[in-house]
C-alpha cells in the first residue's frame, strides 16, 4: 500500500509514519511527506497517485481542500485535524475517514481496515487505487444529504427576529465577535464563529474570503487584480477593511464565482 502524507507539522509527520510502520497487517510504503498546498499540487502533477493519502486540513499556506480545486485527484483520502468543524467539507471530496488529533493507533488501524474493506468490495482484482466511480460509491455510503442553514435568529433588544440567508450580504469577525451584515447594511452580532459558519452555509452561495470574511456571492460587487498575484474583493455594502484573496486561493475563488 503506497501512502502519501500531507502534514505541515514535523512531529505529526513522524508520529503518523511510526504508527503506519507498526500496523503489521499491511505492507505500507510512505512515498513522501509534504507540508503545503503548493507542494501537494506540484507532487500530484509530477507523480502517479498513491493508493491512499493522509491530509492534515490546516496546512502552512491554506486548507488542504484547495488541493482538490487546483488538481483532479481520485485517490481516497483520510483527513487528520484537530478541528471537528471540517467534517462535512471533508466528505465532499475523496474522504473515507476523518481522524481527530491527537491520532490514536487503534483509530488509525480502523481507518486503514475501512479503506482495505472498501477497496476489496469494489475491486476484486485489487487494483492499486480506487477509481473515481468507486470513490463516488464510497461517498454515497459515507454521508447523508447535507442540509444547509436557511435562516438565522437575531436578537434586537428584547425581540427576536429571523434573517433569511438570501438577505445576508456577508459575515465578518472583529474583536472576538462575529457579525452578520444584511443586504440593507444592518449589522447584528451572532453566536457563531466563522469556522462554524463555513460548515453551515451552502458553499455554492457563500465563500470564505479570508480569516475575517465570508461573503454571499451576490454581494461581490467587483474584483480587482492586486500586487503579488492576489485579488482585491469589493463587497456591497462595502466594509471598512480591505479584503484580499491570497495567491494560493485565487483559483478556488474564481471557480466559485463561475459556478
From TrEMBL:
Domain of life: Bacteria
SMART domains in the record: LytTR (SM00850), REC (SM00448)
Segment forming the signal sequence: none
Keywords: Phosphoprotein
Pfam families: LytTR (PF04397), Response_reg (PF00072)
Modification 4-aspartylphosphate, positions: 56
SUPFAM superfamilies noted in UniProt: CheY-like
InterPro entries: CheY-like_superfamily, LytR-like, LytTR_DNA-bd_dom, Sig_transdc_resp-reg_receiver
Domain Response regulatory: 2-116
Record-level Gene Ontology MF annotations: DNA binding; phosphorelay response regulator activity
Keyword Lipoprotein set for record: no
Residues covered by the HTH LytTR-type domain: 152-259
Name under which the protein is recorded: Two component transcriptional regulator, LytTR family
Organism: Reichenbachiella faecimaris
Phylogenetic classification of the source organism: Bacteria, Pseudomonadati, Bacteroidota, Cytophagia, Cytophagales
Amino acid at each position: 500500500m503506497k501512502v502519501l502524507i500531507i502534514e505541515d507539522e514535523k512531529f505529526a509527520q513522524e508520529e503518523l509514519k511510526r504508527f503506519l510502520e507498526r500496523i503489521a497487517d499491511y505492507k505500507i510504503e510512505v512515498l513522501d511527506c509534504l507540508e503545503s498546498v503548493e507542494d501537494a499540487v506540484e507532487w500530484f502533477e509530477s507523480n502517479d497517485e498513491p493508493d491512499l493519502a493522509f491530509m492534515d486540513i490546516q496546512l502552512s499556506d491554506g486548507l488542504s481542500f484547495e488541493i482538490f480545486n487546483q488538481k483532479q485527484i481520485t485517490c481516497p483520502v483520510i483527513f487528520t485535524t484537530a478541528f471537528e468543524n471540517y467534517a462535512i467539507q471533508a466528505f465532499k471530496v475523496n474522504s473515507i475517514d476523518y481522524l481527530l488529533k491527537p491520532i490514536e493507533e487503534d483509530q488509525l488501524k480502523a481507518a486503514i481496515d475501512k479503506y482495505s474493506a472498501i477497496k476489496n468490495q469494489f475491486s476484486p482484482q485489487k487494483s492499486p487505487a480506487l477509481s473515481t466511480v468507486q470513490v463516488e460509491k464510497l461517498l454515497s455510503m459515507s454521508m447523508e444529504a447535507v442540509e444547509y442553514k436557511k435562516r438565522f435568529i437575531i436578537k434586537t433588544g428584547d425581540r427576536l427576529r429571523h434573517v433569511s440567508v438570501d438577505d445576508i450580504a456577508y459575515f465578518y469577525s472583529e474583536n472576538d465577535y462575529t457579525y452578520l451584515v444584511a443586504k440593507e447594511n444592518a449589522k447584528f452580532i451572532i453566536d457563531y464563529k466563522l469556522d462554524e459558519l463555513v460548515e453551515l452555509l451552502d458553499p455554492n452561495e457563500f465563500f470564505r474570503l479570508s480569516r475575517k470574511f465570508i461573503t454571499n456571492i451576490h454581494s461581490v460587487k467587483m474584483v480587482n487584480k492586486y500586487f503579488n498575484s492576489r485579488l482585491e474583493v469589493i463587497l456591497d455594502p462595502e466594509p471598512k477593511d480591505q479584503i484580499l484573496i491570497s495567491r494560493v486561493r485565487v483559483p478556488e475563488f474564481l471557480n466559485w464565482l463561475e459556478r
